[in-house]
Amino acid sequence: MADLRVFGKTPKGAAELAARSGALSLAQRRLLILIDGVRDVDQLAAIVPSALDESLDVLEQGGFIALASGAAGGNDTEQGASTMIPEAEMTTVQEAKTRAVRAINELLGPAADGLAMAIETASSGEELRPLIREAERLVALAHGAAAAQSFIQGIRRR
After folding, report:
1. Structural domain count of the chain
2. Taking burial as the number of CB atoms within 10 A of a residue's CB, which of 35, 109, 130, 132 is the most buried?
3. How far apart are CA 127 and CA 44, in angstroms?
4. DSSP-assigned states of every residue in 42-88
5. Could you give the CA distance from residue 133 to residue 19 in angstroms, rounded to a whole number?
6. Is residue 128 domain-resident?
7. Side-chain half-sphere CA neighbours of 59 within 13 A
8. Domain around 65
9. Which residues pair with 40 in a beta bridge?
10. pLDDT grade, residue 91 (50/70/90)?
11. Is 11 in the same domain as 76?
12. Which of 50, 53, 142 is nearest to 104 (CA)?
């Protein structure tokens, strides 16, 4: 039987990824990174086949994830958000730079240090845009289109 449940990160889950508190095992942390409010459990199982059910239980019971909006009984999650963001909720260039660097380090690790440094030195939105697009492309290659969309959402929203 197909498991079509879709989970998204809660604010607690997003905070855990940013803080790296050590509350989760490496497998649970990897799964939390992959949970994007788009992939269903069957799709996640294809990526992370071992101990998926146990890790999902830990993440859900710990409040790091919840059923995404639109899923049966779903809660509001950060990844379930619309791609259209009102201008009042857009970030400043400095906020976008800070969030982008944090996300790049989280999602791509040391291999993207050069890109992270370039983003930190960008002095305007015009300089920042192509760097963010490159980061989005790299995130998509490493983690899929949904992760790239979540990356962009995380930078844009206040």
Report:
1. 2
2. 35
3. 35
4. HHHHHH--TTHHHHHHHHHHTTSEEEPTTSTT----GGGS-S---GG
5. 25
6. yes
7. 30
8. 7-80
9. 6
10. low
11. yes
12. 142
